[in-house]
Amino acid sequence: MTRTPPRRCRNPLWVILMCWSLRTLAGSDETAPSDTTERIVWTKSPIAVMLTVGEERLLHFPDSVSVGVPQALAASLRSQSINGTLYLLANAPFDATRLMVRSEHEGPLYVLDVAAQAHDPAIPPRPAVQILVDNPVTDDTSIDTTPLSAVHW
């Protein structure tokens, strides 16, 4: 009696599709952290940032930034800035407080209104925030490039 060799899958797309389907079904857990990123365009208006005590929140800026934290908030908020990402972690609830975030490369000065609330297991983890700068397109012919020292009044 001759045995026929087992049939092998000749279409790798089928294997990929099955793996993706299983991963999607397994990843439908409601308690899993969200991989979404909230995108906010900087329009020179304060950006409201809500924190949850004990959960670190990341804010991504176009450039490296430094942050000014008021002395009254220093015990309740840990802030670290690394390569354009601001890491905020609230140790205690606090009302909205204004933070100034300065770009280290001739960029804008951002204004954040940060508040923290107590941890609530019913609220899912908050997503990271990406701050975008809206650079309006300008027509080069409309810009006066004459040096100020050459202008005669």
* Arrangement of strands in the largest sheet: 1-9-3-6-5
Task: Tell me roughly what share of residues is in helical segments.
Answer: under 10%
How much strand content do the residues show?
35-45%
Number of strands: 9
Taking pLDDT < 50 over at least 5 consecutive residues as the criterion, the unreliable ranges are 19-33, 148-153
Shape: extended
Q: What is the succession of H and E elements?
A: HEEEEEEEEE
| Integer-rounded radius of gyration | 25 Å
State the major sheet. 5 strands, mixed
Average pLDDT over all residues: 79
- Secondary structure class reads mainly beta
Tally of helical runs? 1
Distance between the termini: 106 Å
Description:
- This protein has 153 residues and is mainly β.
- Helices cover 10% and strands 37% of the residues.
- The protein is built from one helix and nine strands; from the N terminus they run αβββββββββ.
- It has one helix at 12-26; strands at residues 37-42, 47-52, 57-60, 65-68, 77-82, 85-90, 94-103, 109-117, 128-133.
- A five-stranded mixed beta sheet has the order 1-9-3-6-5, with no helix packed on it. The chain has a four-stranded mixed beta sheet with strand order 2-8-7-4, with no helix packed on it.
- A hairpin with a 5-residue loop joins strand 7 and strand 8.
- It is extended.
- The protein starts with 11 loop residues before the first helix and ends in a 20-residue tail after the last strand.
